[in-house]
Design a protein that fits this description.
The protein is α/β, with parallel strands linked by helices. The protein folds into two domains: 94 residues, no CATH class; 188 residues, no CATH class. 49% of the residues lie in helices and 9% in strands. It has ten helices and seven strands. The chain is globular, with a radius of gyration of 20 Å. The structure holds zinc ion. The site of zinc ion has 5 residues, from helix 5 and helix 6. This is IrrE N-terminal-like domain-containing protein.
C-alpha cells in the first residue's frame, strides 16, 4: 500500500523517533555547502530540525526507516520536498571502499610499508574518502536542485537522463572554479574506484561487470569513467583519451562481477589484493 502521508510529515515523525544522527549531518555541512552555492538552497541548509520549507533538508539515517522511506536502506536518496536522506552505513562503507589498509598490501616488506607510511596513507585515505562521499552527497543535492517534483507529481520518476544530470551537477560544483589540486584529487578518487573494480572483475583481457541492480543507474565503474571523461573534456587536454580507452576494456554483462551490497562489502583494495595474490600464485 502506498502511504498518502506527505513525505515531510513522515520524516518529521521519524526524526522525533530518533531515526537520524543529527550530529553526523552537522559533520557533513562542510561537504554539503559547496553544492548549494548558486542554487535556491544557498545559505539554507537544515540538518538539525524537522523538514523546513524552502531549505535543503539533509539527514543521516542510523536505523531501518519506516514506510515509504524503507527503500533507503544502504542507499542515499532524494525523497522529494527538498529532503535528502543518506544511510550512515552506506556513506561510510562507500567512502572508505578504496582506502589503503594493512590488508591491502602483500608481499615482502608490506607490513613495513604500511607502518612506516601510516601518516601518508591516512592523508591519502582522507582525500579519497572525501571525493567518494561528496560524489554521493553532491549527486543527491543535484536531484534536489534539478528534479524537484511538480505539485502534480507525488514522486519523481528517476531516469538514466536524470541520474546523469545529477552526476554532472556533482562534477560541475566540485570542479568549476576550483584549483588544479581539487581537479587532480577528483581524478585520483575516481581512478582509485575504477582501478580496483577492474582488478576485481578482470578476466581474459577485459573487465566484466554486472549491470546495476536497479536498472536506473549505470554500474559504478561506468559512472566513474563518465565523470572522469567529463572532467577531461572541461580541462586543458580534452583530447586526452585515457578514459575513452578505459571504457573500451569494460564489458557490462549479466553474471559479471559487482562490488556487492555497499553496506556489507569488503574494502575493494583488500579484495583486489587477495585476487592479485592468487593470480601471482598461479604462475
Ligand atoms: Zn540518483
Amino acid at each position: 500500500m502506498i502511504s498518502r502521508k506527505p513525505v515531510s510529515g513522515v520524516v518529521a515523525s521519524c526524526l522525533s523517533a530518533g531515526c537520524f544522527d543529527l550530529q553526523a549531518g552537522e559533520r557533513l555541512l562542510p561537504e554539503i555547502r559547496p553544492f548549494v552555492v548558486g542554487t535556491r538552497f544557498q545559505g539554507k541548509i537544515n540538518v538539525d530540525y524537522a523538514p523546513l520549507a524552502g531549505m535543503l533538508n539533509f539527514y543521516v539515517a542510523t536505523r531501518k526507516l519506516p514506510g515509504q522511506l524503507g527503500t533507503i536502506s544502504c542507499n542515499c536518496a532524494y525523497v522529494g520536498a527538498d529532503i535528502v536522506i543518506c544511510d550512515k552505513a552506506f556513506l561510510e562503507t562507500f567512502s572508505s571502499s578504496v582506502n589503503f589498509t594493512q590488508d591491502s598490501f602483500y608481499g615482502e616488506g608490506s607490513r613495513e610499508i604500511w607502518t612506516n607510511q601510516a601518516d601518508l596513507f591516512e592523508r591519502v585515505n582522507q582525500i579519497t574518502s572525501s571525493i567518494l562521499r561528496t560524489w554521493i552527497i553532491g549527486h543527491e543535492i543535484g536531484h534536489a536542485v534539478l528534479h524537484a517534483p511538480t505539485s502534480s507529481e507525488r514522486r519523481i520518476a528517476m531516469t538514466k537522463a536524470k541520474e546523469n544530470a545529477a552526476d554532472s551537477f556533482f562534477l560541475e560544483k566540485a570542479s568549476v572554479g576550483h584549483d588544479e589540486k581539487a581537479v587532480r584529487n577528483l581524478h585520483w578518487g575516481l581512478n582509485q574506484l575504477i582501478m580496483q573494480i577492474i582488478v576485481i572483475t578482470f578476466k581474459d583481457g577485459k573487465a566484466h561487470v554486472a549491470p546495476s541492480s536497479d536498472d536506473i543507474h549505470e554500474p559504478w565503474i561506468l559512472r566513474a569513467i563518465a565523470l572522469g571523461q567529463e572532467l577531461t573534456d572541461r580541462g586543458p587536454e580534452p583530447e586526452n583519451d585515457y578514459y575513452k580507452s578505459l571504457s573500451r576494456d569494460i564489458s557490462v554483462e549479466p553474471g559479471g562481477g559487482s562490488i556487492g551490497s555497499l553496506c556489507q562489502f569488503q574494502n575493494l583494495r583488500e579484495r583486489a589484493t587477495q585476487i592479485q595474490k592468487k593470480r601471482l600464485g598461479e604462475h
